[in-house]
Amino acid sequence: MARQLDEQIVARFPVGRRLRVLDVGMGRGAQALRLARAGHQVTGLEKDATMIAAAREALAGQPEGIRERMRIIEGDGRDTGVHFLPGSFDVVLCHGVLMYVEEPDPLVAGLARMLAPGGLLSLLVRNGDALAMRPGLHGDWAGALAAFDTTARLPHPRTEADGETPVRFGPDVRADRLATLTATLAGIGAPLQSWYGVRVFTDTAADGAAPPDDVETLLAVEERAGRTDPYRGVAALLHLCGVRG
Q1: CB of 42 within 8 A of CB of 23?
Q2: How much is the pTM?
Q3: Could you give the CA distance from residue 241 to residue 196 in angstroms, rounded to a whole number?
Q4: Which of 95, 130, 139, 149 is most buried, by the most CB atoms less than 10 A from its CB?
């Protein structure tokens, strides 16, 4: 997913430009730190105290220049208007957050308001069009059958924002459908420009499984599948990129 995000940034902003980035629900700060290392000015917004402590610990171990480019704010992603003025950021990330929000539309609309014209909104969501894949591949036929007609809360592992470390954040997560989010983004003035699949083949990997010796080949396969039909449509997660008009 980090490669997908970099592709979008390079395509939309001049090379070398220091971007203003907001990472809403930044978790442990993996993506925020990566972008700060790349030279961007990054603000991380997170409400979970444990995650904030982990992000601050990770930031404390960085060189001074990186620490100066990143700030961490405690707060809820639904309250971006309390902390920031509209149009304050060039890039807004919201990765693995919508799956925990019962009514995502107000949150997404608030994120779009934070973008300057031409700004990039990056969403990572659970794919509501492919919920039957994981239970079906595991032979859980009852679970697969139930998953066809719902986007409700069902057990699912997700990947931390660095795109590398599989972790569980609890079983109760909902999903979003591509068509629904496409309509939402169009309605808030940040229409969908590109979308990718994430974890097309690797979603069934056992928790804690060691990476294979040829991990670069694995990543190349996932990256290719994530941009190729029909594979991307059955990915466990979807990465949607909208651009503020």
Answers
A1: yes
A2: 0.91
A3: 9
A4: 95
